[in-house]
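Q: Here's a chain of 373 amino acids. Please give me its 3D structure as tokens.
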Amino acid sequence: MSEPTVSLQDAGAVLCLDDLRFHAVWLRDNALDPDTRDPRNGQRLITLSDIPEDVTISDAHTQAGQLHCTFQPEDKTVSFPLAWLRAHAYDHPHKDRPGRLPDQAEQWDATLSSNVPTGHLPTLQSDPIERRDWLAHIRRYGFAKVTGLQPESGALFGIVDLFGYVRETNYGRHFEVRTEVHPTNLAYTGLGLQAHTDNPYRDPVPTLQVLACLENSAAGGENMVVDGFAAARRLQSEDPHGFDLLTRHCARFAYEGSAGVALRSRRPMIELSPDGTLQAIRFNARSAAPLTDVPFDYMAAYYGAYRRLSRIIDDPSMEVTFKLAPGEAFIVDNTRVLHARKGYSGEGHRWLQGCYADKDGLLSTLNALEAAL
């Protein structure tokens, strides 16, 4: 295979590698030598202030799959694997488009009901390939089911142990979901619940939620999940101005349901990154506080978009429905997937346990498994 073409532009301020361009300051900042990065953990040993402002490249050539650059005024030569440079190239069209999905995410609707991603806990614990694939389903769809739990208190922690740590809140390390006489939260009643994201009144919200079934002999009480990103994109296609309003103006959420707790947050219902990528959905009518960040002239249109999003979320064509049996559980990306429950009767028993965790641990475990396997 022939060596790539290398040239310098702008007096050495830019390097061209075939059709890819790299700034000298970017290459120097990302140097892989042991004086710049710790060879054991990859962390930088220098700051940007340690790099001369007038950094340029005086010489560059390739040999045996490596690019060798000499930086001035340091007169420092550094080598980069060509494959590494191509994998980290930034000289390409960037996808600045409001409402685009995150990389490796796929939107879905009720048609996924026939193929709900599911893992068997004992297998997930013993087989790293199965664990990798199950975690990849969560990254792709934002939720997955688990079977094979022991239907006993605390068994749900075994799911979190697959990738990370429990996030404790004012509800405790875990919480019980069953009927109470004087509930501190409507989740502890037999009422049906609209699809929602949990704890929008926290900042940051818990990014993962696990719900495990210990007992479920009551009539009704099926669980439902809705892809919040798909709902947001549908709103965008039906009402672009309304979508824009829900992304540009903050909603407010609050919870003061127990002594000593007064949680409040101010965030958009639909959150985008600067390049327009969908970042998070916050939707929970039970915890909505008065809107005070929407200008008067936009309030009526904002409520119109809010109502339309609510109807989209309630549309049966958007929801995947299943009824958990004892020993089954599901996990949701709480920044993306809304979950709901149909109402259930007072006959029989329904007992679920829930806990929160954080998505960074899940993605870290997945990245490590993908690299290792």
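Q: Can you summarize the key feature?
A: The chain has nine helices and 21 strands.
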